[in-house]
Amino acid sequence: MSTPMIRRQRRTAGLLLGPYFVLACLVTLAPLVYAAWLSLFSDRSSGLGFGGVEHVFVGLGNYLRALGDSTFRAGFVTVAAYMCLYVPVLVVASLALALLLDSGLAWARKAMQAALFLPHAVPGLIAALIWLYLYTPGLSPVIGWLGGLGDNGGPANTAPLVSVINIAVWQWLGYNVVIFYAALQAVPREVVEAAAVDGAKTWQIAVRIKAPLIRSAVTMAALFTAIGGVQLFTEPKILDQASASITSTWTPNMFLQSAAFDRNDFGLAAAASILLALVAGGASFFVMRLGRRGEA
Amino acid sequence: MTQPTVAWTRVSRPTSAAVLGAQSGPGQTAPMERPKDRPNRGRTRPAWLSRSVINVVLLIAVAYALLPQVWLVMASTKDLHDLFGTNGFAPGAGFNLDENLRYLFQAQDGIYLRWLGNTVLYAGGGALAASLLCVMAGYAFDKLEVPGREALFGLVLVGVMIPSTALALPTYLLASKVGLANTFLGVFIPGLVFPFGVYLARIFSAAYVPDAVIGASRVDGAGEMRTFWSVAFPMMRPGFVTILLFQFTAIWNSFFLPLIMLSDTRLYPVNLGLYVWNTTAMSQGRPEDYLLAITGSLVAIVPLILLFLTLQRFWRAGMTAGAID
């Protein structure tokens, strides 16, 4: 049953979809396949050091080495700790600000939203640089006000996790406020009015009526924030320069870079990158499933 | 964080129970202790009080968002002595911005301008091509007869699930195998694929392009390609701009990939150049490079902030696209 019309459509669909899928194979699939292949080999200096370097098949040896490496495992622990703090702080703070904006008592809502959103326009690396300077004793105007923070080389050194989280919150707070505020606009006004007539106070309406009604937006934001967290790299990479407590393998991504370029151990780096892609992809898949269930 | 989030702004249907469940609980204690003889104690606070508390909290959040940028502007106007010697949120003793800018644009034979140009090519050119591919694919998924449509779309979603940084090292390994490491294309090509953009484009095609219009165009005898380019594409233009903005920001933000892919400083995007200047300032005893990193950061974000403020409408469209059914 293929009419000329359907055949025409299929041909056009092929022309419109082809370029994207060809490039996606080259950019996404091919690197993963090649890395998976590389991860099965290791460079061993053979014999007594005379034979140069041999490329040997080691099977899953690199994976076992990566999983057996305590710094690699510690990187995942760092990321997990980061997410346990960062996701709730970001979501609660942006939800609270969105509810305040929506309370009907806020001044200049549009301007406030724009101001809060502005840090998102700053590229992550530059955001990290600005905060690095704000954390540095002697450069920072803030640390002086806050007493003991400037001791021992400043917060990047004494509280690396909190320092990194603060940079991420600064970048994403306004973004999520805009999303939540847009979701709140869809809450039917008559529900809010009915509650007010029943004697509910403004804060009760916010916490008990509006917040539950935008639960799906909040859940999605929390889950997407968690996906992004797995990729943690830029902020600690910058703070690393000023902090003795952030090592060169502090997060899984930093471990990859260090394995590849400090130790030239490409087999190990390839295996670690496949493991990271699996963990991150698995986490994302889990998020999408949850998101779909939230929709139903 | 490079992955944009989708907002599911659909609201669950309010039940009467949700409304009835909001009984008036005990009054919230006011932040300030009121005299005991006030008749309204324990009931509502005066409206001006909650209004000012709410706005003070919001203004604190706004200050948190803006002060670091104020610091950057102030720091860019100082010389090295004032940078370390005066308060960061106040102007320095002298006004040194013109001097800093001259120093920035002359450093290493004007390499900063070259980095800006590279960034425009990587992010602007890359995002333009990527968005075009996304709109083409999204339209085909939405409006054309595609064999195995949902299976193919599932592949796109798999692409959404793989974070870009997890691909950076494999991309570098493959690029060095085929001789593209440390080349312009090694950074440019990965930016051409934007799975989330295909997802958005499919939603935008369904929202902006009525099926009847496509049907009418077919009846009028326009070919499928002609229908897409002359009828559907102009209708999808706002969606195109939204996808363009998202991918532009993502490429502008990317740091891990260029960091491992490029060793030739003449190919650097701005991000990487600033990182190197900051490194030499911090650890190689070149404190004057602080001025390069700081002024260079300011010059790099001014156009981005203007872009954000003028195109707010398109941002919102992308962030709340999940609301469209």
TrEMBL record, chain A:
Entries under PROSITE patterns matching the protein: ABC_TM1, PROKAR_LIPOPROTEIN
Stretch forming the signal peptide: none
Sorted UniProt keywords: Cell membrane, Membrane, Sugar transport, Transmembrane, Transmembrane helix, Transport
InterPro entries per the UniProt record, alphabetical: ABC_transporter_permease (IPR051393), MetI-like (IPR000515), MetI-like_sf (IPR035906)
Keyword field contains Magnesium: no
Entry's transmembrane regions: 79-101, 113-134, 161-184, 213-233, 266-288
Domain ABC transmembrane type-1: 76-287
Any Pfam family the entry gives: BPD_transp_1
Subcellular location: Cell membrane
Topological relation to the membrane, as annotated: Multi-pass membrane protein
The keyword Cell division appears for this protein: no
Major subcellular location class: membrane
PANTHER family: ABC TRANSPORTER PERMEASE PROTEIN (PTHR30193), DIACETYLCHITOBIOSE UPTAKE SYSTEM PERMEASE PROTEIN NGCF (PTHR30193:SF41)
Family statement drawn from the similarity comment of this UniProt entry: Belongs to the binding-protein-dependent transport system permease family.
Protein name: Multiple sugar transport system permease protein
Species the sequence originates in: Kribbella aluminosa
Organism taxonomic ancestry: Bacteria, Bacillati, Actinomycetota, Actinomycetes, Propionibacteriales
Automatic annotation (TrEMBL), chain B:
Entry coiled-coil feature ranges: none
Principal cellular location given in the protein's record: membrane
InterPro entries on file: MetI-like, MetI-like_sf
Any Pfam family matching the protein: BPD_transp_1
Transmembrane segments: 48-67, 120-140, 152-174, 180-201, 240-262, 290-311
Location in the cell: Cell membrane
PROSITE patterns noted in UniProt: ABC_TM1
Region entry Disordered, spans: 19-44
Leader sequence residues: none
Keyword vocabulary terms for this entry: Cell membrane, Membrane, Sugar transport, Transmembrane, Transmembrane helix, Transport
SUPFAM superfamilies documented for this protein: MetI-like
Superkingdom per UniProt: Bacteria
Domain annotation ABC transmembrane type-1: ranges: 116-311
Membrane topology: Multi-pass membrane protein
PANTHER family the record matches: ABC TRANSPORTER PERMEASE PROTEIN MG189-RELATED, ABC TRANSPORTER PERMEASE PROTEIN MG189-RELATED-RELATED
Protein family membership: Belongs to the binding-protein-dependent transport system permease family.
Protein name: Multiple sugar transport system permease protein
Native source species: Kribbella aluminosa
